[in-house]
Amino acid sequence: MKTLGEKFKILRQKKGVNQKTMAESLGISIPAYSKLETGITDPNFSRINQIAEVHELTLRQFLDIGEEGGSEQEQLVAELKEKVRELESSVIRLQGKVIDLYDKEERRK
């Protein structure tokens, strides 16, 4: 079973941000956040809930991170699928912009 600090670190690394960024998003100092990750400080319930919210997770999803049963893997797959959908939407929007620019350039000729 992962400690809360280990779960905080897993989520932060998965998000690709440093401790400073996480501390700022939580409204705490970098040393305070570091102590949460290393287990020096035990977080209260509201801090755990806040961290889960920052990562857009329910408390249940947060608590399941790193536990047996594949729920973390299922969550990662779902997150990756959502990111792919977002990227596909972005690509489609950009393609539309390229077509619009091309049409405008053609009309100028």
Fraction of residues in helix: over 70%
Query: What is the string of helix and strand elements?
Result: HHHHHH
The CATH class of the largest domain turns out to be Mainly Alpha
Main beta sheet: strand number and arrangement?
none
Structural class: mainly alpha
Annotation, overall tally of beta strands: 0
What's the end-to-end separation, in Å?
67 Å
Give average pLDDT, whole number.
88
Our count of domains comes out at 2
Per CATH, the superfamily of the largest domain is: lambda repressor-like DNA-binding domains
Task: Enter the CATH topology name of the largest domain.
Answer: 434 Repressor (Amino-terminal Domain)
Mind explaining what this structure looks like?
It is a single chain. With 109 residues, the protein is mostly helical. The protein folds into 2 domains: 1-67, 434 Repressor (Amino-terminal Domain) (Orthogonal Bundle), CATH 1.10.260.40; 68-109. Helix content is 76%, strand content 0%. The protein has 6 helices and no strands. The protein has helices at 4-15, 19-26, 30-38, 45-54, 59-64, 71-108. α1 (4-15) packs across α3 (30-38) and α2 packs across α3 (30-38). It is elongated and about 70 Å long. The chain starts with a helix and ends with a helix. The mean pLDDT is 88.
